[in-house]
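This part of the workshop introduces the protein records we will be handling. An example says more than a description, so a record of this kind follows.
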Amino acid sequence: MNTATKVRFWGPAVLAVLLVLCWALPVLASGGDVASAAAAAMPADGHPWWFWPTALLFFCFILGIIAVLAGVGGGVLFVPLVSGFFPFHLDFVRGAGLLVALAGALAAGPGLLKRNLASLRLALPVALIASACSIVGAMVGLALPTNVVQTCLGGTILFIAVLLLVSKNTVRPEVKKQDAISVALGMDGVFIEPSTGEVIDWKTHRTLPGLLLFIVIGLMAGMFGLGAGWANVPVLNLLMGVPLKVAVGTSKFLLSITDTSAAWVYLNQGCVIPLMAIPSIIGLMLGSFVGVRLLAVAKPKFIRYMVIGVLLFSGGKALMKGLGF
C-alpha cells in the first residue's frame, strides 16, 4: 500500500475516531456513562443498546457500496431509508445524515482542491449563501411538527428521484459569454483533464439565477439533513455552465461548509447521538472503499435505476407516514 493509498484509507478512520472523542469525552468528564446515555435515546423495544448501532453499521456499509456505484451522495440515501426502516426519531436521523455527508466531504475535499477539481472562487460565494440558508433551514426543520417535516421530506425525495431520472449532465458545457456577476466574483478557472492532459479554461454564466437557487438548496439541506450534492451538481453544471468534473468536485467541497453550518444547529439541540452517527459514518466510509473497487466490474446504469426505484419507494413511504396513512 503506497503513501497516497494509506492517506485515503486512514483519513476517514481518523476522522471517525476524532468524532468519537469529541462526543464521548464531555460525557465522561461530566460523570455520565456513554452507553447508558446513548441507550436512553435508542428505541425501547426490548433489544440491547448495541443492537441498533450494529444494525446501522451493516446497513450503512451496504448503503456506501450502492451510493458509489449509483454515483450519488450517501446523505441523500441515508435519511429516507434510515427514517423509513429504523425506529429512530426523524430529528436524530437528520442530524446523523448531515454528519454522514460532512464526513465524506471532509475526506475528499483536500484532494479535490489539490487537483484543481474544486474551485475556491466558485465555491466561496455559493457557500456563503447556502450555509447561511442551511442554518435557517435547520432551525425551521426542528421547529416544525415531525409529521409536516416527514411529508415535506417525502415530497423532496420523490422530486430527487425524478431529477436523477431525467437529468443529463454535460461534460463540458459551452459558455459563450461570462456575465457581469461572474466576472466580478472571479468565477472562472483552469483545470487539467487527467485522461488527456488537456488544459481546459472554464467560466460561468447565468450566475444570478444559480445563486438564487442555492438559497433553496441551502434551506432544503438544513431542513432535511440530506446534504446537497444531488442539487449542487445540476445547478453548477447545467445552469451555470461549469464543466462536470469541476461541478462535482466543487459540490463535494461545498458540503464541508454547508453541512457544517446546519450540523451545529442539530448538535446544539441535542439531535446527534454518537451511537447513531459513528456507525453510520464508519459503515458508509468502508462501503465506499468497497464500492470503488466494484465500480470497474459493476453495471452502474442498473444500480442507478435501482437507487431511483428505492428513492421512489422510500419517498412515497415518508409521504404517507407524514400524512398519517
Observations:
- The chain has a mean pLDDT of 78.
